[in-house]
Design brief:
With 391 residues, this protein is α/β, with parallel strands linked by helices. It is 35% helix and 27% strand. The strands form four sheets. An eight-stranded mixed sheet has the order 3-6-2-1-9-13-14-12, with helices on both faces. A six-stranded antiparallel sheet has the order 16-17-15-18-20-19.
Length: 391
């Protein structure tokens, strides 16, 4: 029998009614004979609420204690889903990340997975149980509870699929899959039925919220087939897999495959001296981008990390840096886009009124930096040009 890992995000398990609905759908898969490992996030807004409670008490809460607090959210979800499966007549058992054998390093708040000792999962699958795992968490080599950072449940699911030898990892969320742009900004965004690992990595790194970049990295390195689909319909979604050789006869045509974005980014400009380098060595959260520009080290981070970085700068005795707010990024994803001057000219012409501040590129992206207030309008213009009104 095939092992299938299914992961459900916070909005998918956001209420008792939704959890019951998922249990009914899982019961059907169980009766088809699949061996199921189900990874769950905390119920919607639970993690944010727990963060809020911690910061009401402390301006700089202990990372260890934060991990102890935040992992409570997934334990609630896993237990409620297990109880719902019992009501459907399906044998199940729930495990925390540590009980599942997810072993991490010691970096509280953004730990990295070192290995997975999934013997307990295998034992329970052999007893024909559905195994429910709390995502986002593990246990360090020093026996401390750790969390994998925001979006860590995606990483938990793909890592488990890898170590269990699962036939597929299904990521259930509140959208039907991957689109050519954010459907909330571009209602005509085109659904993408299949996408290669590298294009998905480019989208994830550059703002797509469908799948966390670390999860895509795991899938790419270990060639895990991942499907992103809706938890409300369970209909087929976007399959993320190894890229195929292009069949398009226009082999060197510059094609935009999708558009990703980030908004409300903060920029810190710091002197790249020893103190700043030591700070970076201690920083274990996400940094969106790092640039060295005119003898200044620029750090771009999401607003949620501002208080943490400000605290570390103060503790390190680093002078208050130049800080800029409301920065946005729009990223065109496609192979070799910036190699064609005519293509660049077209993009610049389209963005003439977008107040572009900087352009950079990689082999798979063309990145536009601009005021956050211009992001939505710019995406709409670019999507109209490269995908058309009807996608």
């Amino acid at each position: 029998m095939a092992i299938i890992v299914k992961k459900f995000g916070g909005t998918s398990v956001g209420s008792v009614e939704l959890i019951r609905s998922i249990a009914k759908k899982l019961a059907k898969a169980y009766h088809r004979g699949d061996q199921l490992v189900v990874v769950v996030s905390a119920m919607a807004k639970t993690t944010d609420n727990l963060f809020g409670l911690a910061y009401e008490i402390s301006k700089h809460p202990s990372r260890r204690e934060m991990d102890m607090l935040l992992t409570a959210g997934e334990r609630i979800s896993m237990s409620l889903l297990s109880l719902s499966l019992f009501e459907e007549g399906i044998p199940s058992i729930s495990f925390t990340g540590s009980q599942s054998g997810i072993i991490t390093d010691d970096h509280h708040g953004n730990a990295r997975i070192l290995r997975v000792n999934a013997f307990r999962i295998h034992e329970e699958l052999a007893k024909e149980k559905v195994v429910i795992v709390a995502g986002f968490q593990g246990v360090s080599t020093s026996k401390e509870i750790t969390t994998l950072g925001r979006g860590g449940s995606d990483t938990s699911a793909v890592a488990l699929a890898c170590y269990l030898g699962a036939s597929k990892c299904e990521i259930y969320t509140d959208v039907a899959g991957v689109y050519s742009a954010d459907p909330r900004i571009v209602p005509q965004a085109q659904f993408i039925g299949e996408i290669g690992y590298l294009d998905m990595l480019a989208l994830s790194y550059n703002g797509s919220k469908v799948l966390h970049p670390r999860a895509v990295e795991f899938a790419y390195r270990y060639k895990v087939a991942v499907e992103v689909k809706s938890s409300f319909t369970f209909e087929p979604g976007t399959l993320i897999k190894q890229e195929e050789s292009p069949k398009d006869p226009h082999m060197e045509e510059r094609k935009v495959n999708a558009i990703a974005h980030k908004d409300n980014i903060l920029r810190y400009r710091l002197a790249p001296d020893t103190g700043v380098l030591q700070l970076l060595e201690k920083w274990h959260y996400e940094i969106y981008k790092i640039n060295l520009y005119e003898a200044a080290l620029e750090l771009y981070i999401e607003e949620k990390y501002e208080s943490e970085l400000d605290y570390m700068l103060q503790e390190s005795g680093i002078p208050t840096p130049e800080k800029s707010r409301d920065i946005g990024f729009v990223n065109l994803v496609g192979l070799g886009l910036a190699a064609d001057p005519a293509f660049m000219a077209k993009v610049l012409r389209l963005c003439a009124n977008s107040h572009l501040q900087r352009i950079s590129h990689s082999c798979r992206t063309l990145e536009l930096m601009l005021p956050a207030v211009q992001v939505a309008k710019t995406i709409a213009l670019l999507h109209q040009e490269f995908f058309g009104v009807n996608g």
